[in-house]
Amino acid sequence: MGSRLWTPREEKACEMGEDFGVDRDNVVVNTTYLLANYTDPGLYTGIGAIILVVVAAGVLCIYSIYYVSMVPKIQEYGRLRAMGATRRQVRQVVFREGLAVAFAALPTGLLLGSILARPVLLTIYKMADNVETAYTEPGMHQLCVELLEKGQVPILRWWIYLLTILAVLATVWLSLVKPMRLAARVSPVEAMRYQGGSSRKKDRRGYESLNISRLTRTNLGRNKRRTVLTVLTLGSIGILFMAVATVLSCASPKEIARQEFEGDYQIYVDSWEGDKMNPDRAWASIMQDNPLSSAFIEEVRSVPGVEGVKVRSWLQGSLSDLDPERQITTANLEGYEDSYKEVILSGITEGTADWDELKKGEKIIMNQRLQHWFPDLTAGSQVKLLLETEQGPVERTFEIAAVGAYPSGICGGNFLLPAESLARFSSANLSQTLVITVDKEQKEEAFQALDAMAQISPYLATDTYDTHLQTWESGMGIIALLGYAFLIVLGAIGIMNLVNTMINSIYTRKKELGMMQAIGLSERQLLGMMQMEGLFYTAGTLAVALGIGSLAGYGVFRYMKAENIMNVTSYHYPALPAVLLALVVALTQVLLTCAVSRSFRKMSLIDRIRYSE
Fold this sequence. Notes:
There is one protein chain. This protein is an alpha+beta fold. The chain is 58% helix and 11% strand. It is built from 21 helices and 11 strands. The protein has helices at residues 8-19, 31-36, 41-82, 87-127, 140-149, 158-185, 188-193, 212-222, 224-250, 253-260, 283-286, 294-301, 341-346, 355-358, 419-422, 443-454, 465-507, 510-518, 523-562, 575-601, 605-609, and strands at residues 265-269, 306-315, 317-319, 333-336, 348-351, 363-367, 382-389, 392-404, 415-418, 431-438, 460-464. Strands 1, 2, 3, 4, 5, 6, 7, 8, 9, 10 and 11 form an 11-stranded mixed beta sheet that branches. Helix 3 packs parallel to helix 17 (465-507) and helix 19 (523-562) runs antiparallel to helix 20 (575-601).
C-alpha cells in the first residue's frame, strides 16, 4: 500500500504519450508486462561482483601454482638464457605455456557450462516457486519452468561465451605477470643454481643436531614467499566461506519472517495509488466506506481459536516542503492502539516521547529509515505533512519528538503516532490492518473461518506468517545453494594449489631427501616430516580462515543490519560451518600427505639420489 512512484520505464511511457498529445493522467501503465520484462540493475552489479571475485581467486590460485612450479622450471629457463634466449623470449615461453593450458581447458569448461546451464537454472526456478516479491506475479515461476523445460527460452547467448573467454584470458594474463618477470630477470648462472629460496647471500644457520621439527622448519623457511602464498590462497577461500556462512546463519528464515510479519494472520485493506483503471483502489476512496468496520472487527474477535486482534490505522501523506511530488518517498502516518505503547517507545533511538503527549496530535515519532533520504530530519525538527483526508488534502505541521528503529512488520509508514491522535485528522474509518493471533491447536480452523470472512469484500486481502516463512525458507535455500556451490568451486581451486605445493615441495627435494635417507632418515621420519609440513599449512589456513573470516563475517552482518538488508537484526556465529571447514581442511591435508608419501616411497633410494642428474 502506498502512493504511486513512477519508474524510469513508466516515465518514458508517459513522455511518449505526451508526444502524441495524451495527458499523463490518461496513461495507463501495463505493470504486468513491465514486470515480465524488467531486469533489476542490481542483478548486473551482483554478476559483476561474482566475476571479479572469481577472477581475483583465479589470479591468486594460478599465480600461486605457477610460482611454486617455478623451482624446476627456472633451471630450464636458465639453460635457454645460456643458449642465447632474450628476456622477452623467456617471458613469451611462460606466457604461451599459460595460454596453451587455458585454450586446452576453455572448450571443456564452455561445454560443461552449456550443458549445466539449463538444468541449474531450472532447479533454481523450481526452488523459487514459493518465493513472492514485489517483482513476481502469480504463476510467473511456473510459466518460467514450463518455458525452460520446453527449451523455448534462449539461455546462452554469444556475448556470454565472449565474456567468459575474455574473463579467463584476463585471469591467466594477470596470473602470469609475476612469474614471467621472475623467469626473465634471473641470470643464466643464477637460474642454473636456483633452488627456490632467496637469491640474496646471507649467513646460513646450522644446528648441532637435527630432528624432524628442525628439518620441517628449514624447508618451510627455504622459500617463505611460497609458504605464505599457499596459506593466504587457501585462507582467502576460507574467509569467503566464513562470510557466506555468517550471512546464512544470521539470515534465519524464522527471524526474518517474524521481523516482517506481526502475529499469525492478518486481514488488511488492499489499496494502491495511481491506478487509472481502478481509481476506487486509492486509500482516500476506500476509507470512506472501509470494510474493516467495528462490527467486522468484533466478528473476527469472536472466531473460535482467535486469541487476540490488534488494529493498525493508516493515513496517506507527503512531505509538502521536502518532497511534495513524492519522487523520493511517501510520508504516511501509521496509528497504533495503546497495546503497542511499550513496543513503540522501546524502539526509540533518538530523543524521547511520552505516549499521552503524542495523543494530543502535535508531536510524532519518525521511522529511522526516513533519515536515509532526509538526514536533516532529527528529534526536535519541525516537519510539514500534506495529509490526504476524505475532505481533501490538509497540511499539518508536527514536531518530531523522537526517531525510532522498527521492524517492517511493525511499522510500514514513515511516521508513527497513537491511533487516537491519528483519528483527529479524519472522520473516516482509518483502520487498515488487523493483526490476529490464534491458538496453535485451532490454527487451521481459525484460518479457514478468517479466509471466508475476508472474502466478503473485494478490497480485503489476507496474509499469514507461515506464507512469509515459506517464502524465506525457499529464498534462503536458493542463496545457500548458489553460495556454497560457488565456494566449492573456489575450494577445488585452492586444493589444487595445495596439491601442487606439496608435490613440488617433495619432488624437487628428491635428491636431498634420498641422501638424508642414505645416512639414516627412516621412512617413518620422512612421513612425519611431511605430516608436520601439512599440519603447518592446515593450521595456517584455519588461522586465516577462522580468524579473519569471522571478523569479515561480523563486518558483513553489521553492514546488513545498518542497511536493513533482509531484515537481519541478530548475529549468530556459524559454529557448525566453522567446524565443518576445519574438518574438511584437516581431512584433505591428511589424505594428500598420505597420497604424496605413498607415491614418493615407490621410488627406490638410488633413483631418489640420482634425481635431476
